[in-house]
Amino acid sequence: MPTAAATAPRLKRPQSWTQDPEGVKREILDAARAEFVEKGLSGARVDEIAAKTSTAKRMIYYYFKDKEGLYLAVLEEAYSRIRTLERTLDLAALPPLDALATLAGFTFDYHAENTDFVRLVMIENIHHARHLKVLTKISEINLSALEMIGDVYRRGVAEGVFRPGINLLDIHLTMSALSFYNVSNRATIEQVFGHDMGAPAARIRRRASVIEAVLRFVRAD
């Protein structure tokens, strides 16, 4: 007759890092992003990041070398994600005004829905972009943002709906700044003016204002 031990259900062993290395790296990056966003680069601790994963601390050092290497990976992924999602917009299929409005709306929504990205950029600015300088891929990754704007802008100028002579970076900075501020300064604006920029109605109104501001900046009329 089988013993109780023999008939007891077997506990599923955690998947090892050798079986799913990408899964382990993904788990580490997710935990690290949350830690960096909450405490900044200086305040984050590898021990605490490891405690939030199902893997060992040594695996963080195995994959990312040290805390700064982990931070660099989180930062690169943050920039890569927004640029990757931008490229799914298929702006070429839209008239120039609609295409730019779509891109401005996406930029606003992405910042509003991904506050971690805003926090990471703020943290990196505190460090004077020292770590971005190490990431050689960052400039290449972000070039796609200007390329997309350039394609839309040139079509708009050719059709007479956009005024010529505008620097592409200025268009990008206008969209990014208005979208970024709506998240980065949310707490201070609420404290000073009693206005919650994250409230649904306020967000809808502000989104429309941002799109209008971007279009007024480039329109020929």
UniProtKB/TrEMBL annotation:
Keyword Flavoprotein: no
Coiled-coil segments on the chain, per record: none
Pfam family, one: TetR_N
GO molecular function per UniProt: DNA binding
Region (Disordered): 1-20
DNA-binding region of this protein: 45-64
Gene3D superfamilies given in the database record: Tetracycline Repressor, domain 2
Matching InterPro entries: Homeodomain-like_sf, HTH-type_TetR-like_transc_reg, HTH_TetR, NicS_C, Tet_transcr_reg_TetR-rel_C_sf
Stretches assigned to the HTH tetR-type domain: 22-82
Top-level taxon in the UniProt lineage: Bacteria
Keyword Ribosomal protein: no
Keywords, alphabetical: DNA-binding
Full protein name: HTH tetR-type domain-containing protein
Lineage: Bacteria, Pseudomonadati, Pseudomonadota, Alphaproteobacteria, Rhodospirillales
